[in-house]
Amino acid sequence: MRVLAINDISCVGKCSLTVSLPVISACGITCDVLPTALLSTHTGGFDGYTFLDLTSEFSGVLHHWKTLGLKFDCIYSGYLGSKAQIDLVCKIKEEFLTEKGLLVVDPVMGDSGMLYKGFDDEYVDKMRTLCRQADYILPNLTEASYLANIPYPATDTKTLLFALAKLCPRPIVTGILEENAISVCYLDEKGEEKRYSSQNVAGFFHGAGDVFSSAFVGAIMKGKTEEKAIQLATDFTTASIRRTAKEVPDKRYGLNFEAEIFEFLKNLNS
Ligand code: PXL
Q1: Which residue pairs, CB below 8 angstroms and at least 24 apart, start in 79-84?
Q2: pLDDT digit string, tens, across residues 48-86
Q3: pTM for this predicted structure
Q4: 259 C-alpha to center of ligand 1: Å?
């Protein structure tokens, strides 16, 4: 069982590959990586970060993998530095995903109603083309609103899910704030809206989306149903957030997910 995680390496400020690798590996799954960019830190809240686009390495890497006859049971994409990389992920799916393999797209583009630095409407449109190829998409509410072209915050989540389902039949939207709760919403097999909620912790927690998506990929690849994978990933992310709120003074450095990983694995394997 191999998962290919296509995401950036933010050297400091746990997110992207520095989250996906430990979480997916801990699930007992080989996590191969295709780094999209190398940054000194992630782009959220740090000034003066460095950014090296790695697109030019892709063709050589992919050519080498071809000679090895590699195929992946899951391709999981996250932060893609450019529209060209979105096209490349579509190509990688065609050439390297097994017949029954899954493409999971976390359309990392923004948060709190705004696109991250360097992203624009054209990028959003390009991301829609990748979502059309996916088995699951895991946008947060900001990304979901942009993808569905509904003003943020989309409050009618049923309409939002139906709009997203036109791109990908299995949309899972994270970070929906209710009074004291934060929810994930998705569609069940009958096409009805479902929610999984947990108590909200005030504040913004960098890397929470990556913890959720990586745990979801790990759980799905361990054979859990979509619903169970959502529950496991949510509980893990929420526990990590609660701990981080108490223990980590500067939230830019990401979640203390490491301290919650054993509990997550216990639940995953029970
Ligand atoms: O966690 C999302 C993310 C991933 N990668 C980079 C980011 C961000 C969010 O800010 O900047 C480089």
Answers
A1: 79/7, 79/8, 79/15, 79/16, 79/36, 79/37, 79/108, 80/6, 80/36, 80/108, 81/8, 81/36, 81/37, 81/51, 81/53, 81/54, 81/55, 81/118, 82/53, 82/55, 83/122, 83/123, 83/126, 84/55
A2: 999 999 999 999 999 999 999 999 999 999 999 899 999
A3: 0.98
A4: 22
CB within 8 Å of 260: residues ≥ 6 apart:
236, 239, 240, 243
Distance CA 108, CA 78 (A): 6
C-beta of 43 in contact with ligand 1 (< 6 A): yes
Q: Is the CB of 36 under 6 A from ligand 1?
A: no
Q: In the predicted model, what is the mean pLDDT of the chain?
A: 97
116: DSSP letter? P
Whether the pLDDT of residue 180 is over 90: the answer is no
Name the token pair of 256: 């203390």
Query: Is the Cβ atom of 208 under 6 angstroms away from ligand 1?
Result: no
pLDDT digits (tens, 9 = 90+) for 216-269: 999 999 999 999 999 999 999 999 999 999 999 999 999 999 999 999 999 999
One-letter amino acid at 168 equals C
136 alpha carbon – ligand 1 mean position (Å): 20
Query: Whose CA is closest to atom 8 on ligand 1?
Result: 42
- CA 43–ligand 1 middle distance (angstroms): 6
Name 167's bridge partners. Answer: none
